[in-house]
Design goal:
The structure holds two protein chains of two kinds.
Chain A: E1 11-20, H1 29-35, E2 45-47, E3 53-55, E4 59-66, E5 76-88, E6 92-101, H2 112-116, E7 121-124, H3 130-138, H4 150-162, E8 178-186, E9 194-200, E10 205-212, H5 217-243, H6 251-264, H7 281-288, H8 292-311
Parallel strand pairs in A: 6-7, 8-10
Antiparallel strand pairs in A: 1-6, 1-8, 2-3, 3-5, 4-5, 5-6, 5-7, 9-10
Chain B: E1 2-7, H1 14-27, E2 32-37, H2 44-47, H3 62-66, E3 76-77, H4 78-81, E4 97-100, H5 113-129, E5 132-137, H6 143-152, E6 162-169, H7 172-183, H8 188-194, H9 199-204, E7 206-213, H10 226-245, E8 253-258, H11 261-265, H12 272-277, H13 283-296, H14 299-303
Parallel strand pairs in B: 1-5, 1-6, 2-4, 2-5, 6-7, 7-8
Antiparallel strand pairs in B: 3-4
Classes of the chains: A alpha+beta, B alpha/beta.
Bound molecules: adenosine-5'-triphosphate and magnesium ion.
InterPro entries (chain A): SCO2521-like (IPR049749)
Organism (chain B): Actinacidiphila rubida
InterPro entries (chain B): P-loop_NTPase, ParA/MinD_ATPase
């Protein structure tokens, strides 16, 4: 028996790209503000507690596209996608594009003025199943051309910011980008926010399916940015530790590889620090399993031990040559 | 580091040699990415023995990415996807080896501002992820060469280390052609200067690699008549002289790969298995490839002038 059709539902969806900022020194609050000043008519948001986080004004991209769908047809939809850039501690850059698929169906395309009054909303022009759109969106294959694709909008902004002349293009360590694609359906009456899945596909794409009581796209996007940030930190630290050949003989090489991590990454771990209470349940679930913080702490401990071990000079000359 | 592999003529050994260098850098522990920028015939994947991509991929390759048709060019993890026996397991201590293939029906295309911008973005992104990014360019002063010269002239790439390897065969005509490609009126240096490169800096970032060089002392020729052997030696000496005159001599030479029978038969990576166990490939070839891979990152080799 198929479950009853819940009727029209709001779907939030988006994608976050995370990358190291290509600069030898982390940016100060001032330069970070200059970097993310994407629109002269709107302010950059800056907060310094519990860590430095700078958020650009939103930009809007008009879309006239098909909605992804796993089974049914791909209904046409028109509206705008919001995108913003977020810089944490002057070191990790994220771009985040998201939209709200409004429930209900319009019959024909309206003038752009209509959509601009509803920034970040997308209006379907044909009937669709919210579930089907979610599954289609999270399917790991690259989204087909012509289909709603916040990821490519986020990617464009990321490339643009990363080319800024404020940056000297010298990152302190090698690292890749990560992509996190997410959706949020409404939580059941009175229920807390919850996470239905967190997967990593073979091509590196992270997918997150949420249920949230709040349909505030910006707040849910902020939660996903926080997830993406910490997933990136863990991914990057794991890769760098593997590269450093921790435990191999060459002490100096290991130290040289670990130093930038200590200088630039270890202090960034602060999961859920800015997530509003209504959404905090998601982090609690992830901390139980897979236990992001546990894995992070144990890696950090290994790094600190290695650094301590290899920098402390031996007190006695026990290293006689044989 | 960005490494551009160029050659004046087709079929010089550019793809095979640069792929082998990429492989050897990965074995040495570097994270390496290999880009197939040979828009006319993207066949680099064949050398890495990746199924389904040997003539480029059906969709999502580099050509369509540079034309803005998708944001994520397809990546192939060679250690995971190669069908080559020796490549299927990533050796301990080795770095990543990633191939970014071309599109099967790519072909050349016009270069506009947007193409160059995408190319710069791609280089910046890969350079911040990999230690060595090898870019296999199509032969001659192609679109690919022009685009790369244009991209590397942009201020964002000014601080990124770029090196050029120009491959040529060891014959009279090839030596002259390689000289022309680099120093000629329509050469890489002149083309770079036109686009804002510093002449001296660009020239000093270029080194030559001689591919498929017959060694008159090799056991391959041990049984040829004396007269022929003498003649080969003389040719070799004359060519060495010509190369020196044309500024392709010692100071600008980065490596010399011997004529390798295995490579005459098949475009492939020369693994240690091929040399040590099955002994189908020669030790000198392996040695030369390893030396070339080391020279690529050896500052001294790049300071010679
Ligand atoms: N050292 C070598 N000894 C013998 N044969 C070689 C050697 N290096 C390359 N070859 C062979 O020469 C041929 C051309 O090599 P390759 O495909 O690498 O050249 P290319 O310059 O990339 O050509 P194209 O311009 O067509 O892409 C191939 O068959 C290759 O196996
Ligand atoms: Mg080739």
């Amino acid at each position: 028996m198929t479950p009853p059709d819940p009727g029209p539902q709001t779907v939030l969806c988006g994608e976050v790209r995370t990358s190291v900022l290509r600069t030898s020194e982390a940016l100060t609050a001032r330069t970070a503000t200059q970097l993310l000043n994407l629109r002269p008519d709107e302010h950059v948001l800056l907060s310094e507690r519990p860590n430095l986080r700078v958020v650009s004004p939103h930009q809007l991209t008009g879309v006239d596209c098909r909605l992804p769908a796993l089974t049914g047809g791909r209904p046409r939809a028109v509206g705008t996608v919001a995108v913003r850039a977020v810089l944490t501690e002057g070191r990790v850059l994220q771009t985040s594009a998201f939209a709200r698929l409004v429930p209900g169906v319009g019959s024909h395309r309206k003038p752009w003025g209509h959509y601009l009054l509803r920034p970040g909303d997308i209006e379907p022009l044909a009937r669709h199943q919210a579930r089907d759109v979610v599954e289609g969106f999270l399917a790991s294959a690259p989204l087909p051309g012509g289909v709603l694709n916040p990821g490519s909008i986020a990617e464009r902004l990321l490339d643009e910011v990363l080319r800024h002349q404020l940056l000297d293009q010298r990152a302190p360590f090698k690292s890749g980008r990560t992509r996190l694609r997410w959706t949020a359906l409404p939580a059941a009456e009175g229920a807390q926010a919850s996470i239905e899945r967190f997967t990593v596909a073979a091509d590196g794409l992270r997918t997150v399916a949420l249920r949230t009581p709040s349909a505030d796209p910006s707040a849910v996007a902020a939660l996903c940015e926080d997830l993406a940030l910490h997933d990136w930190l863990l991914t990057t630290l794991l890769a760098l530790v593997e590269r450093s050949r921790l435990g191999s003989g060459d002490g100096e090489a290991v130290l040289a590889a670990l130093r930038p991590l200590v200088d630039h990454l270890l202090h960034l771990w602060m999961p859920g620090a800015r997530v509003p209470d209504a959404l905090a349940g998601v982090w609690e679930t992830l901390e139980r399993r897979p236990g992001f913080s546990r894995q992070w702490q144990s890696l950090v401990q290994r790094i600190r031990d290695q650094v301590a071990l290899r920098t402390v000079p031996l007190s006695r000359p026990v290293m006689a040559r044989s | 580091m960005l490494v551009f592999a160029a050659s004046d003529k087709g079929g010089t050994g550019r793809s095979v040699t640069s792929s082998n260098v990429a492989y050897r850098r990965a074995l040495a522990g570097d994270d390496v990415c290999y880009l197939d920028f040979d828009f006319g015939s993207p066949t680099a994947a064949a050398v890495f023995d990746v199924p389904g991509a040997s003539r480029g991929v059906a969709a999502g390759g580099l050509h369509s990415h540079l034309q803005g048709r998708h944001t994520e060019p397809h990546r192939i993890d060679v250690w995971a996807e190669s069908e080559h026996e020796e490549l299927r397991y990533r050796p301990t201590g080795s770095g990543r080896l990633v191939l970014v293939p071309g599109d099967r029906d790519g072909g050349e295309f016009a270069i506009g501002k947007d193409t160059v911008r995408r190319c710069v973005n791609l280089f910046l992104q890969l350079e911040s992820e990999f230690d060595v990014v090898v870019v296999d360019l199509s032969a001659g002063r192609s679109y690919a060469v022009d685009m790369v010269l244009e991209a590397t002239a942009q201020p964002e790439l000014a601080r990124v280390l770029s090196r050029w390897l120009v491959f040529h065969r060891w014959t009279h005509q090839h030596v002259i052609a390689a000289h022309g490609l680099v120093f000629g009126e329509r050469g890489i240096v002149a083309g770079g200067v036109e686009r804002g490169h510093d002449k001296g800096a660009l020239r000093d970032s270029i080194r030559f690699v001689r591919a498929a060089v017959p060694d008159p002392e090799s056991p391959l020729w041990a049984h040829v008549p004396l007269a022929q052997s003498e003649w080969m030696r003389k040719c070799d000496r004359d060519l060495t002289e010509l190369a020196a005159e044309l500024d392709l001599g010692y100071a600008r030479l980065l490596g010399k790969i011997p004529l390798e029978p295995v490579l005459q038969w098949r475009e492939q990576l020369i693994t240690d298995e091929d040399v040590l166990a099955s002994k189908v490939a020669g030790m000198p070839t392996r040695q030369a490839l390893e030396e070339l891979a080391a020279a690529l990152v050896d500052e001294e080799a790049w300071e010679r002038q």
